[in-house]
Specification:
The protein is α+β, with helices and mostly antiparallel strands. Helices cover 18% and strands 22% of the residues. It is elongated and about 75 Å long. A hairpin with a 6-residue loop joins strand 3 and strand 4. Strands 2-1-4-3 form a 4-stranded antiparallel beta sheet, with no helix packed on it. The chain has a domain of 53 residues. It is built from 1 helix and 4 strands.
Length: 93
């Protein structure tokens, strides 16, 4: 009988605690509405930096009509490191 009473109290506490939990993907943590948008980077300013040795870097900036990509990570063939930078104009067009 005592175990049943403790179980009932624990269950009531759990129900009351979990009542406020919900998945609300329309609001952020502060209760404001959240929006999604697509911002395209500016290919004239996008590029990457390749570390070819401990003190040598190669900077590639700007895309051409034939190449629309940048590199990031370690090249498995040469073991050089690439870091990418992208320009996202956040001001209105």
């Amino acid at each position: 009988m005592r175990n049943f009473k403790l179980f009932s109290i624990a269950l009531a506490f759990a129900v009351l605690t979990l009542t406020g939990c919900r998945d609300d993907h329309y609001h952020d943590d502060y209760g404001r509405n959240s929006y999604t948008t697509q911002i395209v980077s500016d290919p004239a300013y996008d590029g990457d930096i390749e570390q070819t040795s401990s003190s040598t870097y190669t900077v590639t900036q700007g895309m051409s009509s034939g190449v629309q990509s940048v590199f990031v990570g370690i090249d498995p063939n040469t073991s050089t490191e690439f870091r990418t930078f992208l320009n996202f104009p956040l001001a209105g067009n």
